[in-house]
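Give me the fold.
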Amino acid sequence: MKRLILLLIVPLLVGCGAQSKTSVMTEKAKEIQVNIPAKCTDSKVLSAVQQEIPSAVFIDTKWSPAPDTELADILNNGGIACSYGIASAEIGATVRWVSDSANNFDKWKSKWLANGYSEVDLRDFGLNKGYVLIKPQSETQEFAIWTLNFKESDVWVSISRTSGENLAAGKDIINAVVSQ
């Protein structure tokens, strides 16, 4: 009984901290950190993208999101969006982070499912669940579509890549986001 109480109390105590840093205890009893970087160059994501695209760089993007889009919900609530890759080849990854006190993540769930996303178990990454859309490259689609959205405590993370045929293809980037 004492162990059960401890398992219930520890995640609550660990979760009390700065808004930009979130701790979650998983079934593996491993503490997971999801930090929102202050700026894109503070992230470990570029190194992860360079594992696949060695000449990738941070792409300084001036975002102008359309109203009522995920990007607008992220940026209008103090979030950050960062792209890494080769701009001229239009390959790489974009990661968006936001403290989700406005519950925009929950607002988007039904839209994602209606648009073909699948709910996925992310325990292999030390996370809970997320929503993923994967469409391989084809004759009619120049790049693969690989998009994952997940929320750990109060941090919504959205990762989009131009390659990948399964969830594991994004392992390096997911791990970079989680270990910020």
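The helical segments are 2-14, 45-52, 70-75, 104-114, 171-178.
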